């Protein structure tokens, strides 16, 4: 087995824990209540896709949305981590998208069913390269943006998050032990919108990183 290199966490990390509705302006744009406790869901590591490989549109959706997010890469595992120690468990960050089949999610919501097929399909988690912790000294105050075909769609700041990164690490680890190589997606600011085949997506963390991705209609069931 190759040794675990945190800068390639997507090759061996075991889970992706996502936080829904962590920005009030996004919760409101989809007419959802602003949460009083974090809303969690999971993506499998098979959802990862890297810059240079396309984002696939599953055949079962006609409303695939982008959601740009700050991802937190766990460097040291733990259970019931206190907020005061939470940042010691962070190895770094990644710029991430939480691709969402919005029509399927709406259907699942209306039936009270889980969001799995809306959120966890192949290529539903595009990620940038690993960003070492030192490059983002204040993750609670970075600007995230996303353009579709050069048009700005999402622009927000992590200072707008309802639940902070230390709070989320502590909260999640009370229920789900965090392990080295896990990724936490911290939620998306407002401006989510539908993408089509051949759209060009560009996303960034201001002054830190940008990434470019392309959308391709999936020839197979995703
Ligand atoms: O699908 C949604 O709107 C929930 C979500 O992932 C987010 O708010 O980041």
From TrEMBL:
Q: Which GO terms describe its molecular function?
A: acetylpyruvate hydrolase activity; acylpyruvate hydrolase activity; metal ion binding; oxaloacetate decarboxylase activity; oxaloacetate tautomerase activity
| Domain Fumarylacetoacetase-like C-terminal stretches | 15-212
Question: Is Repressor among this UniProt entry's keywords?
Answer: no
User: Which residues does UniProt call coiled coil?
Assistant: none
What Pfam families does the annotation carry? FAA_hydrolase
Q: What is its EC number?
A: 3.7.1.5, 4.1.1.112, 5.3.2.2
The record, for InterPro entries, names: Fumarylacetoacetase-like_C (IPR011234), Fumarylacetoacetase_C_sf (IPR036663)
Top-level division of the source organism's lineage = Eukaryota
**Gene Ontology CC terms:** mitochondrion
For this UniProt record, the keywords arranged alphabetically read as follows:
Metal-binding
Q: Which reaction does it catalyse?
A: oxaloacetate = enol-oxaloacetate; oxaloacetate + H(+) = pyruvate + CO2; a 3-acylpyruvate + H2O = a carboxylate + pyruvate + H(+); 3-fumarylpyruvate + H2O = fumarate + pyruvate + H(+)
Q: Does the keyword Lipid biosynthesis apply?
A: no
Example GO biological process: carboxylic acid metabolic process
Protein family membership: Belongs to the FAH family.
The name this protein carries in UniProt is: Oxaloacetate tautomerase FAHD1, mitochondrial
Q: Which species expresses this protein natively?
A: Labrus bergylta
